[in-house]
Design brief:
Blueprint (H helix, E strand, L loop, with lengths): L8 E4 L5 H15 L16 H6 L3 E8 L2 E12 L8 E10 L8 H15 L5 E3 L6 H9 L14
Parallel strand pairs: 4-5
Antiparallel strand pairs: 1-2, 2-3, 3-4
GO molecular function: acyltransferase activity, transferring groups other than amino-acyl groups
Protein name: N-acetyltransferase domain-containing protein
């Protein structure tokens, strides 16, 4: 599906989008299962979508093509730990584009809009999490200016 960015509608998500958002959430989880064998096999949930929709501290975006939601992402303002010079930061999550629409700059445009919103909230620092083996996602985030800053390590006992 080679749609031009001008054909896409970028908008704030609403409660009416909840069923589509739940489906996209499962897409995120399915995409991340190869990177983390501890993710449950049955449907599970990452996000409190209702809270993201109702919170003034969050901005949840969707992207539509012909009335169908094909991508999503959010920025959430969070308190920073006291050791940092910034008191608050933006955290990006729920970054997902349906496979047929990848490679067309949709994710970059979502991030651009989320960063603009974050700046309007007087935020100067932005974070996100990505699995270290997810090289395509890492490249996409680096393309818009993110750099690696911390690697979380785990050990299954």
């Amino acid at each position: 599906m080679n749609k031009k960015l001008s054909d896409l509608l970028f908008r704030e998500a609403s409660i009416e989008d909840l069923p589509s958002l739940r489906e996209l959430e499962q897409g995120v989880i399915d995409a991340e299962r190869p990177f983390n064998k501890q993710i449950k096999k049955e449907p599970t949930y990452y996000y409190d979508i209702e809270d993201l929709l109702s919170s003034d501290a969050a901005h949840l975006l969707v992207v539509e093509v012909n009335g169908r939601i094909i991508a999503t992402g959010y920025a959430q303002i969070r308190e920073s730990t006291p050791c940092f010079t910034h008191k608050k930061h933006a955290y990006l999550g729920f970054m997902y584009v349906l496979p047929d629409f990848r490679g067309q700059g949709v994710n970059s445009k979502i991030i651009e809009k989320l960063l603009m919103w974050s700046k309007q909230q007087d935020v100067e620092d932005c974070y996100l999490d990505v699995y270290v083996e997810n090289t395509s996602a890492i490249k996409a985030y680096e393309k818009v200016g993110f750099t690696s800053s911390l690697i979380e390590m785990k050990l299954a006992l």
